[in-house]
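Researcher: Sequence recovery benchmark, item below. Answer with residues only.
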């Protein structure tokens, strides 16, 4: 379901059912001459679209901290926005969702997620924003000392079951750690994903342009490989987004 297309009674039903409300998080970044700048965004939005009415999907956030590590800003498709500018927007959004009543809020990101344990600027901004939003929301709702109050005595037991308040907002990589799929930048893996999810955006004959090391294996991509990747991503999303 698309949040922007839902009427109030549908949103209230989604909240009552604790349906996951999912924010696709992306960047616009140069991905070689054969792929569009929205690869990381499209990978998330198109995979999430396969979940249909199993989730509520928010309008995507497309303007992450792409960085200029791969390519500079001029005419490449890379639009870099500093993570410190993203943080207050993200916290504002998460706070608004908490105030709306949602308690199963998820962000899904594909950009720079190869070292997700330590994090990279875009996902760290959303992760910190989620923590700040929960902390401030709880203190405003319950007052200072809310965690130390008697009613929280089951905190650690709840945490063990993933039922504590810090589970209300979680940021997830599109692919699980160690997934059996080539993780790369504009190489065989991402090219295959676009061939499966947005084939009209792929111009494989241009893969050699620019003489980039990271696009050398792109011609080995196929839509079938991309579909295999989509199945892996959907498998972990169904598990980690807490779908019923
Ligand atoms: Zn990418």
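Model:
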């Amino acid at each position: 379901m698309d949040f922007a297309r839902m009427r109030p009674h549908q949103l209230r039903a989604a909240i009552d059912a604790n349906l996951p409300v999912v924010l696709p998080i992306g960047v616009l970044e140069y991905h070689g001459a054969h792929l569009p700048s929205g690869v990381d965004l499209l990978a998330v939005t198109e995979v999430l679209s396969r979940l249909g009415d199993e989730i509520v999907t928010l309008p995507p956030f497309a303007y992450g901290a792409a960085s200029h590590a791969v390519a500079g800003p001029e005419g490449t498709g890379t639009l870099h926005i500093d993570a410190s500018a993203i943080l207050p927007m993200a916290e504002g959004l998460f706070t608004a969702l908490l105030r709306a009543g949602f308690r199963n809020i998820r962000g899904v990101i594909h950009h720079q997620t190869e070292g997700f344990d330590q994090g990279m600027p875009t996902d760290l901004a959303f992760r910190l924003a989620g923590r700040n939003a929960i902390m401030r929301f709880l203190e405003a709702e319950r007052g200072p000392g809310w965690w130390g109050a008697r009613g929280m005595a089951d905190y650690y037991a709840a945490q063990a079951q993933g039922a504590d308040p810090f589970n209300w907002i979680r940021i997830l990589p599109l692919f699980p750690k160690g997934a059996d799929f080539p993780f790369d930048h504009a190489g065989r893996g991402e090219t295959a994903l676009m061939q499966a999810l947005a084939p009209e955006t792929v111009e494989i004959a241009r893969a050699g342009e620019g003489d980039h090391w990271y696009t050398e294996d792109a011609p080995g991509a196929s839509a079938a490989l991309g579909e295999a990747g989509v199945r892996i991503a959907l498998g972990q999303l169904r598990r980690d987004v807490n779908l019923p």
